[in-house]
Amino acid sequence: MIHLSNIHELVKNAEFSMKFVKSDGSEVYAEKCVCTSFFSRGRTLNVMFIDSNEVRKIRRCTIIEYNGEEVFL
User: Fold this and answer.
1) Strand, helix or coil at 33?
2) Of 17, 22, 56, 68, which sees the most CB atoms within 10 A?
3) Cβ distance 20 to 44 under 8 Å?
């Protein structure tokens, strides 16, 4: 299990996969991602999906899985 406060250390300069919850409650599995920027005060991070080059802003509190390991608060 990974504590949510450690996510910012894990995403630096590394390819990863994660699962997060969208605002409508559905879960999104993101495979082959990289973090393009991290906002500690805003509690968000920008993640680029390598396959599509799509960049999404994700709230850290919505991340429930990182590289197959459960994330907890």
Assistant:
1) strand
2) 56
3) no
Q: Tokens 């899985």 label which residue?
A: 65
Question: Residue 58 and residue 23: Cα distance in Å, rounded?
Answer: 10
pLDDT digits (tens, 9 = 90+) for 20-49: 999 999 999 999 999 999 887 778 999 999
For residue 52, give the amino acid letter.
S
Instruction: Give this prediction's pTM.
Output: 0.89
**Tokens encoding 22:** 């969208």
Distance, CA of 11 to chain centre: 8
- Residue at token pair 């509690």: 43
